[in-house]
Amino acid sequence: MGEGELIDEAMELLRRFELGDQQLNERSAMTLLALLQLGNGDSWDKAENPMLGTRAIMDWIRDEFGVAYKPNTRETIRRLSLHQFVIAGLVEENADQPNRPINSPKWNYRVTDDALKVIRKYGTERFSSELDVFLTAHTSYRSLAEERRHMPKTPVTLPSGRDIRLSPQGQSTLIKAMVEEMLPRFAPGCQVAFIDDTDHQHGVVDAALMDELGITLRAREKAPDVIAWDGERGWLFLMEAASTHGPVDVTRKVELQICSPTSGTRWCRSPASRTVRSCNATALSSHGRPKSGAPTPPTT
């Protein structure tokens, strides 16, 4: 098999598995090949499904395909390739320990046995029939994306001026107010790194910033609704859009603290000043070391 031919075949395989358009690229194809432990010259019937972490996946891509991704690409691979593989039933997380803590360095991904059975038949007469069985048993990512595409969206303008569109249900209206009104008022000049709307499909807004901040969110993690970074003061905002009033409780605070770096940080709870449709926004701020001249954050 010639140079690049295996990657092209992997992209076609992802299309046949009905992944989304954002996954039909070389990054996702090489991610899949790494999970299958396949390199140029290998045949599909030799595919394996070991458990691999994101770092091991990137190392395989570098060694087998000569593509050395920068460290900040880890978040892109997680959120724009692996996350969708998991949703499609192509990949599973932590097959060895499903209840592994979300911040564990041992977090891993593995092609499911059902998917591996199909993949090993790729290029043979039996592939189409095996794939049909798989797609009947699993809701494809593309079909889920099509459902969302036909729903009206809530437009949101980020502080950077970039426009995104959120799902119309649940608390998207409140998230819009948090981003467009609360942040400019209380944290002017901040950057939005992450938005998790009702259907949990939007996710990372700025993957490079997430990696720079050292924040890793897994597919099943109880993420905050908005993550924003105030670089001038060194403040990280973990923001919640809630249907009840009051501060973040102890359990939720611990869950949010797991999401972020904790070294040298202090925490405070800051209730939002705006209520939208009986919803309450609460910001949990993690304060690192402010830059010289920046105000000292309150203690809890």
Structural overview:
- With 300 residues, the protein is of the alpha+beta class.
- It has 2 domains: 144 residues, Orthogonal Bundle (Arc Repressor Mutant, subunit A); 135 residues, Trna Endonuclease, Chain: A, domain 1 (3-Layer(aba) Sandwich), CATH 3.40.1350.
- It has 10 helices and 10 strands.
- The strands form 3 sheets. The chain has a 6-stranded antiparallel β-sheet with strand order 6-5-7-8-10-9, sandwiched between helices.
- A hairpin with a 7-residue loop joins strand 5 and strand 6.
- Helix 2 crosses helix 3 and helix 5 packs antiparallel against helix 6.
- The longest helix is centred in the N-terminal third of the chain and has 15 residues.
- It is elongated.
- The C terminus is likely disordered.
- InterPro entries: BsuBI/PstI_C_sf, BsuBI/PstI_N, BsuBI/PstI_N_sf, Restrct_endonuc_II_BsuBI_C.
